[in-house]
Each structure stands twice: as C-alpha cells, then as structure tokens.
Amino acid sequence: MKNILQKNAIWGIIIFFPVALYFYFLSEYAINIPKWDDHALKAFIVEFQNANGFAAKIQAIFKQHNEHRIAFDRFFTLIVFYLHGTIEYRWLMWIGNFTLLGILFIFFRVFKKTNLPIAYFAPIPLIFFQLQLWENTFWGMAAMQNFGVVFFILGLIYLICSDKKSHFYLAILFAFFATYTSGNGITAFPICIVLLVLQKRFKESIVFGLVSAILIFLYFFHYQMPPSNPPMNGIGIGKIALGFLSFLGSAFDLLPYSSGRVKVTILFGAIFLALSAVISVLLALNSKLINRRRDLSSIELFILGSLMFLIGTGIVVTYTRISFGEVGLLTSRYKIYSVLLTVTLYLAIVSKFNVNRFSWVVFPIVGIAILFNFITNFINFKEVVNFRNQLMSFSYNWALDSSVQPKNNGIKLYETPTFPLDNHLSQLKNRIQFSPVWLEKVTKSVNSNGIFIQNSSFKNNVNNTNSVNIIVQSAARTYLMPTQLSNFPVSGFVRTAKYWQNGFASDLNYNEFDNGKYYLGILIQEGKNIQQYYLNDSLIVNKNINSKVKTNW
C-alpha cells in the first residue's frame, strides 16, 4: 500500500509540474497593457455604463465584435471592472487560462473511465500546458475567447456523450456559452446532433437541433459581415491541402529556424489526419446506429466528437486564413487545436492499450512527453519575452504621444502600469542626434515595408527590468520601438550553457510612423541604469495612404 501511494505521489508531481510551471510563466510575464482588440473592452464598458435600461445593457453585452459575439469576454470584463475599479487585463488573462484547467478536468474525467493507471494520464498535461500557446496566454481578450470556447465545446461534447438527463440539459447551457464566447462555437452543433443520432437518441437530437436553430438565429440576428480577408487569387487546392495538414501538425512546429519547418508540420499533420480518419470510421461503424450488437462507450463518443471538432476547425481556419500565407497557419493562437488533436489521439490509442502486457511502455511515453514539454517551452520562451517588450513599447508610445489622451467619460477605464523607464521618457524629447554615438556595429537593410536593424554583439542580460529599445525621433514625434531577442537552439544551449544569443533585431515598419524624417537611436535599460545613444542613421517615411484597419466595434 505504501509503495502504491509513493508511486501515485510521484506521478502526481509529474502531472502537477507542467501546470504549475505554465502558471508561473503567466504570473511572471503577464502585463496589464491592452493589445489590439483589448481596447474594444474599454469601449464596451463605456457603452454599458451609458446604456439606458436593462435591454440596452443586454444588447451591449451581446453586440457583434468582428464575426463573433463575445458575451463571455464582456461579462467577465464587467465583473473585473466592478471588483477592481478599472479593467485589469491580467485578471482577464487568468480567467481565460483557468478554462484550460477546465479542459484538463474534462480529459481527466474521460481518462478515469478507461480504468488505466494514473501514470498514463501524465503525458496529457505535459503536452497541453506549455508555451506554444503564448499568444493567447498573455492576451486578455484572446485568452478568454479562444481558450474559453474550446472549453465550452469540449464540455458540450462530453455532456452530449452521457446518457444522463441532467447532462443533456447542462449541455444546452454549454451550447449557449459556446455560441456567445466565439463564433466557432456554432460548429459543435452538427457534431452533437451526429453523436446523439449514433446513440439512437432521436428525441434528444430533435430537441438539440431546435435549440441549435434558435441559438444560430439569434446569433445572426442583425448580423453584419465583417471586413473580408485578402482574396484567395492564385491559391490552388494543393496549397490549401498542404496548409490544412500544416495546421493539424502545428504542435510539432519545433524547428523555427529550419527551412524544413513547414514540411515537418505537414508530415505530422498527415499522420494525424490518417489516424483520425481510421479511428473515426471504426468508431462510426461500431455505433449503435450501424452495429446493433455493440454500443459506443462514452469514451469512444467523446473521442469521435473531439476529432470531428478539431479536424473541422482545421478545415475552416485553413480556408479562411490561407490567404495570409502558410506560415500564418502556424501562429501561436491556433496551435491549441493541434495540441488538443495530439492529446485526443493519444487518449484514443491508450484507451485500447493492454496495460498488463505492455506495462513498461508508460515510461518511454512519459519521457517523450517530458522532452516535448521542455522543447516547446525552450523554443517559445523568447516569444513570451519579446511579446512583453512589444506591449511595454505600446505603453511608452502612448505616453510619448500627446494626441493620445484618454477620453473623459466620467469613467476610469484603465490604469497604466508603471515601469522604471517611465521617468526617463521626458528626456527623450532631447534631440537624439546630440547623444553619444553608439560604437557597436549595427546593420540596416531596407525593404518595401520599412527597415530591419540588427546587432550581433550586444550582451543581453535579460530579466523583467532590463530592455533594449530603438528610438525613432523626428522634429514632431518620438517613438520607442521594441527589439526582438533570439535564443540559442537546444544544441547551442547545451554547448554554451546560455539561453540568449548576443544581439537584437528590430523591424521598423513604415505604417507605425507618421510621415517625416526620423533619426535613430538606442535606449538601453539595465535595472535603474538607463543610457541612450545615437545610431548615426535616419529613416524617411513617405506614405501615400494612411491605411486603417476597418472594424465593426
């Protein structure tokens, strides 16, 4: 008995560790600065506060945002606003990331029904809780929307697979939340109807179909088509198919600097698609609808429903996003679907596993999962740091731009965090060309969109109080632009015992600046020590059209 408890304790630590590490990264690197669509939540608070009557306030919550109706995001933003007194974007990130625990709980509930030893559950959190998800993790609105909708959809599928009446009613509630968290929540409706039909639960399938029709009608009531994506001119079926496979295999986007990066994801995507097809066909053929002598278990139904959802999402995202390029399908905010596909296929295979005959196999499986967790965290940690630097530059540039002043609506919406660099911002008004010239070598390459600045010798001492920014200064405006840092590959890390490479890079896009001539400088912060230098170079911005992204919010 003592040995069993000790073994379970060890496996418990292995299960808990990746979750704890993930939330440690969140607590250390989350920052209360809005990004892009986050600003729409401020507009929502104003609209909600100024709305006359209950109906107007409800309308503000369910109002369309791009192609979505993000009532879940808005509801919790209201709660945070009233509890905190302002919108605290880190709280929104935590709320969104807590739904990942809900997803893990769903998989644990399914796993328990397999009666496998707890050791076989360990790979699931190791695969799931890692920094490939960084873009959603550290973005308030995206965390709630993109993680939240997956939780509600998987919860909906789990409940539909249960024959308990109370679970069916709860599934209808989850269907509502899935619909009004993100637009792709609707994609779960036909999947759930198929699962009910396969169980020969025809009455429930009709009821759920009617509820789905009502939710879809309400969703598209007074719906406006958002601005479209770039046209798909010249994109053939072959490119779409390869993009689809790359999307499915994006969890194995582990070679970011290799020319074979996309090919590896396509290979894994093809394997995942083949496995998904075989498993889905076998499960469908063994359903009560087709095979009267056998009935699918709730585990098998959940796996089938999850595979349909994840593969279907891959088709939709690929078709709607392929015009942005193949690499765009490997962006962080989409990788949760490939990661969950990996987890679902693992669960499908291990649920049929003969534990007594191959009990030893759990050790290499867990070992591979630990290695996967380490590599994904290692590769993507730099993205977390660079993203934090980008958000901080947003805050600096709002402070430097006298035209950006919060509108006084009698409501305090947001409180900008303070940084050691804030006290130095006033000194940036001094002409940068009169500062000492920076002596380290900087290369500059010009392209149609702007210039790319790179240095390979500066020794980075990276932490939350150190940073390097590029000063872009004209007679009228001063900008403080972020730099991107690079890490050694794993082999270089083993050889040098260092994570960060020397140097930095900065991509200065013309669209970031007003027209004019700008002098370039560098601002180096090491704790409280802040130095600025002139790069002895300039940038001329002469845009014909000041493009503005169209929105419906």
UniProtKB/TrEMBL annotation:
Top-rank taxon: Bacteria
Transmembrane segments: 9-26, 91-111, 118-134, 140-161, 168-199, 205-222, 234-252, 264-287, 299-322, 334-351, 358-379
Keywords per UniProt: Membrane, Transmembrane, Transmembrane helix
Annotated protein name in UniProt: Uncharacterized protein
Species of origin: Arcicella aurantiaca
